[in-house]
Amino acid sequence: MIIVPVKEGENIERALKKFKRKYEKTGVVKELRKRQQYNKPSVLKRLEMQHAIYVQKLRQNEE
Q1: Most buried of the four, 5, 15, 39, 54, by CB within 10 Å?
Q2: What letters, b where the CB count within 10 A reaches 16 and e where it falls short, cover 26-46?
Q3: Could you tell me where the DSSP H helices lie in the chain?
Q4: How many Å apart are CA 18 and CA 3, to the nearest integer?
Q5: Which of 46, 35, 37 is nearest to 54 (CA)?
């Protein structure tokens, strides 16, 4: 459970902003989206490999 301490006379928008920031840091939404669809380990490995190749090409082009 997320607890956001609110000071006396603090603006409600500011408290809501604090809550949203804490909520984002917990990663609840990210985890929920990740669990909505199952990806096979072979697919994940292929995607990681493609990303690594892409990053490597970017670094080679910089040099």
Answers
A1: 15
A2: eeeeeeeeeeeeeeeeeeeee
A3: 12-26, 28-36, 41-62
A4: 10
A5: 46
Q: What is the pLDDT of residues 11-40, one digit of tens each?
A: 999 999 999 999 999 988 889 998 999 999
- Distance separating alpha carbons of residues 53 and 20, to the nearest angstrom: 36
Cα three-residue angle 54-36-52, rounded to 5 degrees: 10
Assigned token pair, 47: 């995607």
- Length of the chain, please? 63
Check if the beta carbon of residue 12 is closer than 8 Å to that of residue 30.
Answer: no
